[in-house]
Amino acid sequence: MPSDNILVLGATGATGLAFLHEVLGAESGPRLTLLVRNKGKLPEDLLQRDPSRVRVVEGGLANENKLDEAMEGVTAVVSFLGAYMSLYYLITRSTPTPIADSFHLIKKVMRKHGVKRLLALSTPAHALPGEVYTWTQYITTQILPPAIVPQGSAEMTAIAEVCADPEFDYTIFRVPHLNTGSADSKVYAGRYGADFKGTQELSRASLARWVWREIEQNTWIKDQPALGNY
């Protein structure tokens, strides 16, 4: 809605940029506040689509003053922050979680400004209690990620655990492999199991559209759906 002001974290990443393209491509979309470490990574043509709807704050996640500035007037926070593959962590098997750790400060600033709505990206490596898997789902979501990307798997699981805070109206969207497919691809949201219709592929553009609709419709409040194109 035009009255909304969405704080976007991870706006310079591929999925964050897909979200900006989706939202700014609509004439009556919400306002966006972008907290970025380097404004120069944002495409200028994208920022100029509707300058009245975009506010950029340069700063890191550990900078409370910048977080405080960015949170002013915000109605929802959406995070596309995620871990990257690292040969170092693969070899050392170490699993630091700096992004997840930063959410403690983010939530503190949200409380200060009375912001309740929080949407955060995670992956199926974060399993829910009682969730049932087919063998294929179990291997691709629970076995391979911690074996191949131990730090990334730990980071994404920790993000979900920190953000699934009952004090907030959270939605943790757990995504599989992301690709460059169409925004028109159908997205299935639900729990893993034999009835899960989604594949282990999801286009960033369709994810961006799904997140925006979720902000508008609030279908998955205090829930953690797994997503997939189908």
Instruction: Work out the helix count.
Output: 8
- The structural class is alpha/beta
Please state roughly what percent of the residues sit in beta strands, choosing from under 5%, 5-15%, 15-25%, 25-35%, 35-45% or over 45%: 15-25%
Mean pLDDT: 96
Number of strands: 10
Rg value: 17 Å
Inertia-based shape: globular
Largest sheet: 6 strands, parallel
Helix-strand sequence = EHEHEHEHHEHHEEEEHE
What is the terminal-to-terminal distance?
Answer: 28 Å
Q: Which parts are unreliable, with pLDDT below 50 for 5 consecutive residues or more?
A: none
Strand order of the largest sheet: 3-2-1-4-5-6
Walk me through this protein's architecture.
The chain is of the alpha/beta class and 230 residues long. 38% of the residues lie in helices and 20% in strands. The protein has eight helices and ten strands. The protein has helices spanning 14-24, 44-47, 64-71, 87-92, 98-113, 135-148, 150-163, 204-217, and strands at 5-9, 31-36, 54-58, 76-79, 117-122, 169-174, 177-179, 187-190, 201-203, 226-229. Strand 2 (31-36), helix 2 and strand 3 (54-58) form a beta-alpha-beta unit. Helix 1 packs across helix 8. It is globular and about 50 Å long.
